[in-house]
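can u pls check wat happens w/ adenosine-5'-tetraphosphate
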Amino acid sequence: MSKSKNRVFSGVQPTGNLHLGNYLGAIKRFVALQDGHECVYCVVDLHAVTMRQDPEELSDNIRNVTAAFLASGIDPQKHIVFNQSQVSQHAELAWMFNCVARMGWLNRMTQFKEKAGKNRENASVGLFSYPSLMAADILLYKADFVPVGEDQKQHLELTRDIAAKFNNDFCERIAKLGFGDSYFPMTEPLIGGPAARVMSLRDGAKKMSKSEASDMSRINLIDDPDTIAKKIRKAKTDAEPLPEEVEGLAGRAEADNLVGIFAAINDVDKAAVISEYGGKPFSEFKPALADLAVEKLAPISAKMRHLLAEPDEIDTILNEGADKAREIAVVTMREVREIFGFVGAK
Ligand code: AQP
């Protein structure tokens, strides 16, 4: 596959049930980007094992994320859908980037601090060097755009730092080998919209997350309609009705979150939601949100269940996707080895 000027790459970790944050912040946008872009969507299983995973659950979760991609509308015939561990060049390029990135850069990563918690000495080395692998995922395909939720902004900045340092460290070699002024692109993050950071339904200060203990804090893509409606009904809010103007959402984290979810599901902005529901109590807004969420998510969840009944078909799609991804990855790695000066068969 020759490189177009608008390649998109993104990934999702198979670490548990996917939730509305993953869907609105990432997967729904992956679907929209298929028109007019060449997309590479990856189930990032090498990232998942930076935290301990049960092997059988990991296999199930890889198929779950793949089913969520397909059920949401990602087309594996026109684009590339695969799991990262099948393309060994991800790990190989990550090693090269471990030698380009600086300890000080990785030390500043807030996700490592949050995930490692108080006992940092006990965190895996993989968790610390996670951003080098993420840079490798993106740059292996020389991706121009990466749609992600806001929590990944810092890692995207680091990807650009790694690309810039590589281009600078090897600038003469890159030019001598005929690759022009720079080898890796300055990838643009695509972050934004009303659901760039979907918050927990129980605490408007925390992001919705797979690893949060309370299942009531998130809407899972596989939740049935009754569960979705119950979780929205019980979502934490304040006692005031919705504000008359969108500016009135400032300082009201839970209200802002529910309005953002409504807007993102419906492909409108928060102002459009407020123009319809401004001044109305949550007793009116929550049922409308529940109906909308069920209407949009129930078909996805039904399709996921259908796909998961045929795990061999999912595995075939992943294998075919990995073959397509490898075609691109081997070329990048051959060139990167040459730039570094490694000797051997091409
Ligand atoms: N709450 C969120 N709002 C918007 N986007 C989100 N994403 C995750 N949570 C939210 C985006 O989903 C994509 C895939 O995320 P991931 O599974 O690779 O990793 P994560 O960000 O670590 O997701 P979780 O749910 O928070 O998992 P745990 O609990 O395991 O850490 C990314 O684009 C991410 O930005």
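The chain has 14 helices and five strands.
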